[in-house]
Amino acid sequence: MRTEILVNATQPETRVAVTEDGRTVEVFHERRRHRSLVGNVYLGRVHRVLPGIQAAFVSIGLDRDAFLYVEDAVAALDAFDAEPEKDELPPAEGRGQRPRIDEVVKEGQEIVVQVTKDPLSGKGPRVTTNLSLPGRTIVYLPGMRGVAVSRRISDEAERERLRRILEAFSGGGGFIARTASAGCAAEDFQADWRYLTELAGRIQKKAEQGGAPLLLHRELDLAVRVARDLAASDTAAIRVDDSATRERLAEFLAAVAPALRARLEQDSGPEPLFARLGVEEAIEQALASHVPLPSGGTVVIHQTEALVAIDVNTGKFLGKDELEETVFANNLEALGEIARQIRLRDLGGLLVVDFIDMVDPDHKRQVFEKFEAELARDRARTRVLQISDFGLIEITRQRSRGNLERTLTRSCPECGGTGRVKTDLTVALDLRRELEKAAALYSAGETIRARVRPSLLRLVENEEPDLFADFGERLGIQVELVSDASVGAAGFEILKQ
Question: Which domains does the chain have, with CATH numbers?
Answer without folding.
Answer: 3-33+224-279 (3.30.420.60), 41-218 (2.40.50.140), 290-408 (no CATH), 424-494 (3.40.1260.20)
